[in-house]
């Protein structure tokens, strides 16, 4: 086996940690956990709330997986155990936004590999088979943020200022953006209507309006919930309800390579290597630096930050030629 890892914070010019946490326990479990960046910038013991969630669930995963029998538990049993560990760590803090994280792991189960994923971190097998889910609520946020960025770019010489305004609008909500003068009420309403139509959510127009008015800081209310199309499963200390957890097995003889990655990478490469993923990252930065085109997202890059933390864990040469 050949193992490669890149774990890069989004912060360009400081030693500040990002919210991605890789996990490597040789012969046991390998994974990537992408903590959700807290919209309010909450920190606990010097680290972001998202990283706290990622570190907590990574540690709980390592502890659980050390017993080989636990690697064969049902997906529900595993997720429940990890959720309980996260809840035990974070519930006493009484935070307004519950810390949450994705998980994407590969368990070594003797003759088999078992892959478990929850959230939008992904796993790629043999350089081609992709295991990953994306959230509709992120599509709503992305379309809204791009619209605000383009508006602000038109009146700002400094694109970083435009990005700061757009991030604030999508993270803290359009109501606050209107109050601060970033958007007029008419323009905010126009963007909301456009996003509603483009996402096929016309039957849920009030829901989209409520979400965008409050911003991503209210998104936790849709996590591990049911009843509307913006809901999604996540690792936040409560039980996922939508059945979005990916859980598959493959015989080891059929798996030549495993790549586990966070969403800081937007364009999977043709090659199976950290170098390939990093080359793809740099190409995406050159092509769509502000993340408003082919790689549109909830945040763009600036002089001080790239658009997101990124982690890629590569296991290759798993099967002898």
What does this structure look like?
This protein has 321 residues and is an alpha+beta fold. It folds into 2 domains: 2-133 and 233-287 and 307-316, PPM-type phosphatase domain (Phosphatase 2c, domain 1, 4-Layer Sandwich); 137-222, no CATH class. The protein has helices at residues 49-65, 75-90, 136-153, 159-172, 174-179, 185-198, 205-214, 274-287; strands at 2-8, 20-25, 29-34, 43-44, 47-48, 103-109, 112-118, 122-125, 129-131, 246-251, 258-261, 310-316. The strands form 3 sheets. The chain has a 5-stranded antiparallel β-sheet, with no helix packed on it. It has a 5-stranded antiparallel β-sheet with strand order 2-3-6-7-10, with helices on one face. The relative contact order is 0.18.
In short:
With 321 residues, the protein is α+β, with helices and mostly antiparallel strands.
Individual helix count: 8
Structural class: alpha+beta
Q: Give the N-terminus to C-terminus distance in angstroms.
A: 12 Å
Specify the overall morphology: globular
**Broad CATH class of the largest domain:** Alpha Beta
Sheet with the most strands, sense and barrel status: 5 strands, antiparallel
How many separate domains? 2
CATH superfamily caption of the largest domain: PPM-type phosphatase domain
- What would CATH call the architecture of the largest domain? 4-Layer Sandwich
Helix content: 25-40%
Features:
single chain; 321 residues; alpha+beta; Phosphatase 2c, domain 1; 2 domains; five-stranded antiparallel beta sheet; globular
């Amino acid at each position: 086996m050949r193992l490669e890892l890149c774990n890069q914070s989004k912060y360009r010019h400081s030693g500040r940690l990002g919210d991605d946490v890789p996990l490597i326990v040789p012969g046991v479990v390998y994974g990537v956990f992408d903590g959700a960046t807290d919209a309010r910038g909450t920190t606990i013991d010097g680290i972001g709330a998202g990283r706290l969630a990622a570190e907590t669930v990574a540690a709980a995963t390592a502890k659980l997986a050390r017993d080989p029998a636990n690697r064969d538990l049902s997906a529900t049993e595993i997720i429940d155990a990890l959720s309980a560990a996260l809840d035990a760590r974070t519930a006493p803090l009484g935070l307004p936004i519950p810390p949450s994280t994705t998980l994407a792991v590969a368990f070594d189960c003797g003759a088999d590999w078992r892959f478990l994923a929850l959230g939008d971190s992904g796993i790629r097998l043999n350089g081609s088979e992709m295991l990953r889910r994306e959230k509709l609520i992120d599509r709503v946020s992305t379309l809204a943020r791009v619209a605000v960025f383009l508006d602000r770019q038109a009146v700002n010489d400094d694109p970083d200022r435009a990005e700061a305004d757009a991030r604030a609008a999508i993270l803290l909500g359009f109501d606050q953006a209107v109050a601060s003068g970033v958007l007029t009420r008419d323009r905010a309403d126009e963007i909301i209507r456009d996003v509603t139509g483009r996402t096929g959510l016309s039957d849920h127009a009030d829901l989209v309006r409520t979400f965008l008015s409050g911003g991503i800081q209210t998104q936790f209310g849709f996590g591990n919930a049911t009843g509307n199309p913006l809901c999604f499963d996540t690792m936040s200390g409560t039980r996922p309800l939508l059945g979005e957890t990916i859980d598959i097995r493959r015989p080891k003889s059929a798996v030549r390579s495993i790549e586990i990655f966070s969403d800081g990478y937007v364009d999977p490469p043709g090659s199976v290597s950290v170098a390939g993923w990093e080359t793809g990252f740099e190409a995406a930065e050159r092509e769509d630096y502000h993340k408003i085109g082919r790689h549109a997202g909830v945040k763009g890059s600036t002089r001080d930050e790239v658009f997101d933390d990124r982690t890629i864990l590569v296991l290759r040469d798993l099967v002898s030629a």
